[in-house]
Design brief:
Layout lengths: L5 H23 L14 H34 L3 H31 L3 H28 L4 H4 L2 H18 L3
Helix pairs in contact: 1-2, 1-4, 1-6, 2-3, 3-4
Bound molecules: fe (ii) ion (2 copies).
Length: 172
């Protein structure tokens, strides 16, 4: 793997964090848990739901950063088709993330009914499929390319601003 730029490293870490939570979630909604919904009365599972809800908010915020700071650079450097594709994928992922967030919040507040758990599992599956594809594409086509697209100073400034955003945006 080529050496990542500073901001590329931060994005790579964020992608990795999303991937880890996706894999955990994928496991928790698998066949083995068909009749074992996440139960907010259980402290550990309540925490999982809280982390999921916060993680879904992080995905949306991550998209905004990419769209405002990185995609214009890639567009300028001759790949507007890729940017259109990635923005389109954000547009597909976000309503799915919003739907899962709404179901997770209802589950967190009111507990699981059979219908709610089934909707939760379904919403998770559709989101995971889209997220995996998007993360893979960005790792290859954005994160790996940033060191050649950014000069050292711009890279450093973007990394500082991303770090500041993360610190101010995450009270946990
Ligand atoms: Fe993205
Ligand atoms: Fe991303």
């Amino acid at each position: 793997m080529a050496e990542l730029s500073e901001v590329g490293q931060l994005l790579h870490e964020e992608h990795f964090r999303f991937l880890v939570s996706i894999c955990g979630l994928q496991n928790r909604v698998g066949e083995a848990f068909l009749d074992r919904p996440l139960d907010p009365r259980n402290a550990e599972e309540r925490k999982q739901l809280d982390e999921l809800i916060a993680g879904l908010d992080d995905i949306i915020e991550h998209h905004r950063f990419e769209e405002a700071n990185l995609f214009p650079l890639i567009r300028e450097h001759g790949d507007p088709e890729l940017v259109a594709e990635l923005i389109g994928e954000h547009g597909t992922i976000e309503p799915k993330a919003g739907r899962l967030r709404a179901i997770a919040s209802a589950l967190r507040r009111n507990g699981a009914t059979a219908g709610r758990w089934s909707r939760f599992r379904q919403a998770t599956e559709v989101l995971i499929a889209d997220m995996m594809e998007h993360l893979q594409k960005e790792e290859l086509c954005v994160v790996q390319r940033l060191s050649s697209l950014l000069d050292a100073r711009t890279d450093h400034e973007l990394a500082l601003s991303r770090t500041a955003q993360r610190l101010s945006g995450s009270p946990s």
